[in-house]
Amino acid sequence: MAEKLIIFDTTLRDGEQSPGASMTRDEKLRIARQLERLKVDVIEAGFAASSNGDFEAVQLVANTIKDSTVCSLARANDRDIARAAEALKGARSARIHTFIATSALHMEKKLRMTPDQVFEQAKQSVRFARNLVADIEFSPEDGYRSDPDFLCRVLEAAIAEGATTINVPDTVGYAVPELYGNFIKSLRERIPNSDKAIWSVHCHNDLGMAVANSLAGVKIGGARQVECTINGLGERAGNCSLEEVVMAVKTRRDYFGLELGIDTKHILAASRMVSQTTGFVEFCGPAQQGGGGR
Is 289 a member of any domain? Predict the structure, then answer.
């Protein structure tokens, strides 16, 4: 029996960070229902603590969606996490996704915290979240540019505190496939309790390699969750494209050897819906263009 690759869609959260791509609560619900038809495993519905509007959108999606896990992002502090848990109360399956920066640059300039402070904050936040919801994802923001020794220490502690998914983001789109895949592999080999969590990848497309990096994280690194968006929507150059990563794994099952729960018949409808809602042009690959080889 082949292992399953979990598809985590963040169109409603990270995708909405594209300038001009904001969505109303009702538009988010309509897209969430289409993602449920697509059989997306996890829908990141928003960042509940960021605004009342986002809280209401997460709450509405959580109360409506039945077949996918509904997730809210939360910074690694008690207020954000409690707000996320409150918004997710009505969900049949809920996840809190908490994060804190771990790269030297982000810790110093963005957080103004020492590594030891970040370590303690990460531990306490995962512990607090775990007491509210059983399914906890932890992300070290700018993880790919973090010191590997420090990152191992933080991630080992997060798993020990109850994180069920560990996501290693390439926050600024700096990675290249072979190096990123080996980075994930090295973390999994070095961290003693790494087998107690599902490993995830979240790649940005600044260098045009978000899909390639994500697939390398899966094939080389052993990740079993990919974070992606419809049409590759997202801040700056966008995120890993759901339709590309899904079709790559499905078409080249001989190479990846993984199962997917996605119902690919609904990809085009999802792409068009997101395009029409946001005003961003839908994905159009070679098959849809109909061009022959040249």
Answer: no
